[in-house]
User: What shape does this take?
Amino acid sequence: MKNVTELRNELSQVFADLKSGSVKHSDAAELANLAGKMIGSAKVQLEYYALRKEMPTISFLASEELSLNKKDKK
Amino acid sequence: MPYKDPEKRRENKRKTGRTYYNKNKEALNAKARERYHLNKPPPKPRLKKLPKTDEEKRAYKKEYYAKNREKLLKKAKERLEQNPHYYKEWYQKNKERIKEQRKKYALKNRKKINAQSLANAKKIFLANPEKVRAARRLKKAKQKAKDPQKYKAMLNELARKQYKKMSGELRDSYVRELLVKHGVAGRIPADCIPQELVEAKRVEIQIRRYLNEKRN
Assistant: This one.
């Protein structure tokens, strides 16, 4: 799992498996928790660069162009 | 009357079993038939099939009003001439009944009415957007001036409803807001969050909600 797109696909798969019953509830809960942590860390990274007014390419979010400069508009 | 000729009398007796005959029988029968046809009562008018369903009733009323428009208008005018407050009084008398009826109708056709009123509102708005916006602003200002606290409560209620809807449907704006809500380093604008991250978060929330639902 290299980026957020893959994470989403993986999570979607987990959700489908959970519904069909091939994944345990406890396992799915752990996976969702872990995914939440990953998303949170990406968010912190975003915030950090936003505060420093930097616009680097974050590899985890590489599939999406960052638009941190929008903050200046507000 | 019997036949004078005995042979004929015998023959008649043999044929009919009676001594007497009625030579005008045929003519009398014909007359009776004619009389019956002449005096036959006119056929009963066939009753028009009464409307049963609400739609049929509405169609029937519409047809009736269209057919008797002139007559009804004339009658209404006469009533108003006699008593200028006739319809106001009538409404006051039947107010409760009419309100009940309206409520029932609205309950039954709410979806249809909503769709219709929305379509009408859209039409009016598209015809003159600036005017409609000005009217809305004026209405809001009036409400605010009348009772500021009530207005505030109304706005809060609307916001709560909107939020509930957004969170229920997991809209983008809701997920974005959720992501930036508890910022560690500081709150950044919600539109800084990349769409991919929003979508990943959405799936995560979906899983959490599903698990919570199952647990309960």
Remarks:
- The mean pLDDT of chain B is 87.
- Residues 77 and 175 of chain B are 63 Å apart (CA to CA).
- The two ends of chain B are 107 Å apart (CA to CA).
